[in-house]
TrEMBL record:
Transmembrane segments: none annotated. GO terms for cellular component: cytosol. The record marks 147 as: Raises pKa of active site His. Its EC number is 2.1.2.2. GO terms for biological process: 'de novo' IMP biosynthetic process. This is Phosphoribosylglycinamide formyltransferase. It catalyses: N(1)-(5-phospho-beta-D-ribosyl)glycinamide + (6R)-10-formyltetrahydrofolate = N(2)-formyl-N(1)-(5-phospho-beta-D-ribosyl)glycinamide + (6S)-5,6,7,8-tetrahydrofolate + H(+). InterPro entries: Formyl_transf_N (IPR002376), Formyl_transf_N_sf (IPR036477), GART (IPR004607), GART_AS (IPR001555). Catalyzes the transfer of a formyl group from 10-formyltetrahydrofolate to 5-phospho-ribosyl-glycinamide (GAR), producing 5-phospho-ribosyl-N-formylglycinamide (FGAR) and tetrahydrofolate. Belongs to the GART family.
Amino acid sequence: MRIVVLVSGSGSNLQALLDSAGSSELDVQITAVGSDVPGCGGLQRAEAAGVPTFSVPLERGASAERRARWNRELCAEVRRHNPQVLVTSGFMKILSEEFLTRLGVPVINTHPALLPSFPGAHGVRDALAHGVKITGCTVHQVDAGVDTGPILAQAAVEVRDDDDAASLHERIKVQERRLLVATLDALAGGRIHLREELSQECGEALP
């Protein structure tokens, strides 16, 4: 199964995929890694592994018109690498409905909370603020909402009394890496399936 991975930061989840891809553990080919942050750690990890990279930056405070153009530019770059699935992991931008329409292949995302609880960019912080005793991570299929797509897999992580956002997030990341590899392996092996109707709702991939 061919995948493209989008990242914004250090790429620790990406490293788990790079370490596992093409082995008996994970029958996946990473055709490219892209980012909205030129030179980020995730791109450096990919380059060190010999995987093609690209970056499509978006400036802070960009207008709606600029964001729409950015979505089209990013989509064109992703499509150029011919993935069967797009993986967003630690990618800190919201992909537009037009992006999903133009892309024409399923997108899966990792999220550091047990969805549908605590969606959005601050899942770890929000879980702590609400005083939950169990949180975790989710791999889900992306739809036009924010962290609202069908859940593919989840793993639980206990919240300790002395946790802060950093310590809790580090333990979540350990499970997130394991869960992402296992989910992609199950997808590649046909043991779990993506919802085709999400792609069909978007229609045919646009030129």
